[in-house]
Amino acid sequence: MADEAHRKGLKFGLWVDWTQAGTSRQPGALGIDDPARRNWMVSDPPDGRWKPEPFKGMTVDLGVPAVADWAEGETQRIVAQNHVDMLEHDGYLVAQGCARGDHPHAPPDPANLRIEMEGVWPFVISTNSADVSLRATEAYYAVQESLRKQHPGLLLEVCNDGGRMVDFGAAAHADYFSITDAYDPLSNRQAFFDASHVLPPTMLETYVEKWPAPRRENFLYMLRSGMMGWLTLMQDPHDWTAEQREAAKTEVRFYKDKLRPLIRSADLYHLTGRPDGKGWDAVEYFDPARGSGAIYVFRGSDLEPSASSLPLRGLPSGRWYRLEFRDHPEDNRTMSGRQLLAEGIGVTLPMPDSSEIVVFRQISPEKAAQKE
Known about the structure:
Blueprint: H1 2-7, E1 13-16, E2 20-21, E3 58-59, H2 65-81, E4 86-89, E5 113-118, E6 121-126, H3 129-150, E7 155-158, H4 168-171, E8 176-178, H5 185-195, E9 204-209, H6 216-224, E10 230-234, H7 242-265, E11 267-270, E12 280-287, E13 292-299, E14 307-310, E15 320-325, E16 333-336, H8 337-342, E17 345-348, E18 354-363, H9 365-371
């Protein structure tokens, strides 16, 4: 599969939950019945009938040197053996607690120890949690640093159970984050709104999952809700209509050619509050070096109003700008920076659950006069 992807000019990646033990007895497997590795788990399995789930097993304590050594060797093997260009990790990777008294971390307090089950997943809570997490985190950083050193071109994605590790430490040891485990348009925009206040938008990945889109406007609303940072489509395009395939082809090309360069270099401004899926929400990218930007505008499910005015931010007030509406070119216009900052840009979206992208660029006063 990797060779076929490379022949087509694509990169090949693997999702690996590399701190979750299962019941396999294959040589080299991280199995709970392996006597040499059973003590690596943060607790014993609940009973003899325990079985893993597709995305969950028994968590190992990365703070144990033997576990960290195994994890480093396994991740290196996976990358080299499978010709991997991207390695994504997930799961309960950095243990929050551990019930073992013979691991390097501080021992648990028997009087303040409880093990809660999340499905098949034992979740250990005790007074030693901070030390357990610290040691596991340091070991995780070492594994990521080793991968980076041995494979400089490897992309490292952080995807850790709804974003528990979307933080500055993980940002220093990876390329991008999966920022939410919910993939509908609203969840994607909410996760982006939250994370983009503190982390670079270029690192913030959202998965665009299949979502009801009876009209072209709804389909674009779905796609664009994942295009504000790192876009990943998690759909089978064979399920799309011919119209949707054409719309997606055009929109992804626009994202690659126009939006992605802005996301890499521009300043980001939140023009509204956190999206609620009912009213309007918008963000703005503006690159002062190039004098260009883009505004993402989303209208939620409310029937009214069908128009909104959005004051922009970060623009030099003494310049002129040409605005081009992606879906409504009849609304193209020329405005001064002073107008955009004070009055804002008016956007009309007749249909609920729809969107618009407005790109703009600085122009000379002479061109502004001609446009007027």
